[in-house]
Design brief:
Blueprint: H1 3-25, H2 30-80
Helix pairs in contact: 1-2
Length: 81
C-alpha cells in the first residue's frame, strides 16, 4: 500500500468516525437518524469501492511494470553470458 493510499484510507476513516459521532450526538428522531445513517453508509461504501478499484489499478500497473523490468534484466543477463 502506498503512502498516498494509506493517507486516503486514513482520511476516509477519520471522516466516517466524525460523521458517526455527529449523528449519535444529534438531537433527531430515530427514523431520521436511521435514514441519515443509511445515506452516509451508502456514501462510505461508494468511496471505499472507488478506493479499492483505484488500488487494484495501481497493483495491476505495478505488476506489469515489474514483469517488463524482469524481462529486460533477463535479456541483459543473456546478452552478458
Amino acid at each position: 500500500m502506498t503512502q498516498r493510499t494509506k493517507l486516503i484510507v486514513g482520511i476516509i476513516g477519520a471522516a466516517a468516525a466524525g460523521v458517526a459521532i455527529g449523528m449519535l450526538l444529534a438531537p433527531e428522531k430515530g427514523t431520521d437518524m436511521r435514514r441519515n445513517i443509511s445515506k452516509a453508509t451508502g456514501s462510505w461504501a461508494s468511496s471505499l469501492s472507488d478506493l479499492l478499484a483505484n488500488a487494484k489499478g495501481e497493483l495491476t500497473r505495478a505488476t506489469t511494470k515489474g514483469k517488463l523490468q524482469t524481462r529486460r534484466m533477463a535479456n541483459r543477463a543473456e546478452d552478458f553470458i
